[in-house]
Design a protein that fits this description.
Blueprint lengths: L3 E3 L5 H11 L1 H7 L1 E5 L1 H9 L4 E7 L5 H14 L4 E5 L1 H7 L8 E6 L15 E6 L4 H13 L4 E5 L8 H7 L2 H4 L1 E5 L1 H10 L3 E5 L5 E2 L9 E5 L8 H6 L2 E4 L11 H17 L2
Parallel strand pairs: 1-4, 3-4, 6-7, 6-11, 7-8, 9-11, 9-12, 10-12
Antiparallel strand pairs: 2-5, 3-5
């Protein structure tokens, strides 16, 4: 185990790390993203992602856990860089508090629709044009909890390796299959696979619990402000809605996703 000690926040490797955290364009150019936190990083390794460089704070991470993380990282990439930083530097580079002393630069993976491995009767969450990383991360957590086969993000307004998305997903961005595609290509893909398209919308819709989700199912949601594009409305097998009994007319997209996905789970588990 070869460890390099970094003692200054002016170190070029620290500056590169901070730039990766902040700039989506740079993440795309370098094919790297940043994972912060022991739990998230271990999920990342388990999913087969390849670490490029680790920044470890020995004042926070226990020696045994440090050895375990380094060993797993070197198994994934024998040439992974190991950087040790003190608590002062770690506080400067950590995107949030309480992340257990580990930040990593990891090689990104661009998964296409054709890369998705689906079950015989898949359950898929599809999101169109959702721009808030926190919402996307929360939907991924719900998709993981519901055991969804995949999450397809159409025409995204944020990248899936945004640090806020990774944080909000608690690592579900790694535990679920996530693909990015256009709405047009996704509609063609779902039709080709014989997967029902159920769009969440208020107009011309049936209540969600009266809709059969036991077959191959894609639940499609749009932004809270503008909803889904006409392409999805026209391609839909069925339009579904969650009844609103209060004065407001919409739920957060992550809450809606959880309700609809777990209705599909309920139906599929009911004998």
């Amino acid at each position: 185990m070869r460890i390099e000690t970094i003692t200054s926040v002016q170190n070029p490797k620290i500056k590169d790390l901070l730039s990766l955290q902040e700039k989506s364009r740079l993440r795309r150019q370098k094919g790297l993203f940043v994972v912060e936190g022991r739990r998230e990083f271990l999920h990342c390794l388990e999913a087969g992602f390849i670490p490029s460089c680790l920044f470890i704070c020995g004042e926070i991470l226990s020696p045994d856990e440090m050895q375990r993380i380094v060993s797993l990282s070197e198994k994934a990439n024998p040439k992974v860089g190991i950087m040790q930083v003190n608590s002062y530097i770690y506080d400067k580079i950590a995107y949030r508090g309480g992340t257990e002393g580990i930040i990593a630069e990891v090689n990104s993976v661009d998964r296409t629709l054709e890369d998705l491995v689906l079950s015989e009767s898949p359950l898929i969450a599809v999101l169109e044009g959702v721009e808030k990383p926190g919402n996307l991360g929360a939907v991924l957590r719900s998709a993981d909890a519901a055991g969804a086969d995949a999450v397809i993000i159409c025409d995204p307004l944020t990248d899936i390796y945004n640090p806020n998305l990774i944080r909000a997903s608690l690592g579900a961005v790694f535990s679920r299959q996530v693909a990015v595609a256009s709405s047009e290509d996704t509609i063609a893909f779902l039709r080709k696979k014989g997967i029902g398209i159920f769009t969440a919308q208020l107009q011309d819709s049936s209540v969600y619990y009266s809709t059969d989700f036991r077959g191959p199912t894609a639940i499609v949601m749009g932004t809270e402000s503008t909803g889904l594009s006409n392409a999805w409305r026209e391609a839909a097998t069925g339009h579904i809605m969650i009844p609103m009994l209060g004065q407001l007319d919409s739920l957060n997209v992550s809450v809606s996703a959880a309700i609809l996905l777990f209705e599909a789970v309920r139906q599929r588990q009911t004998k």
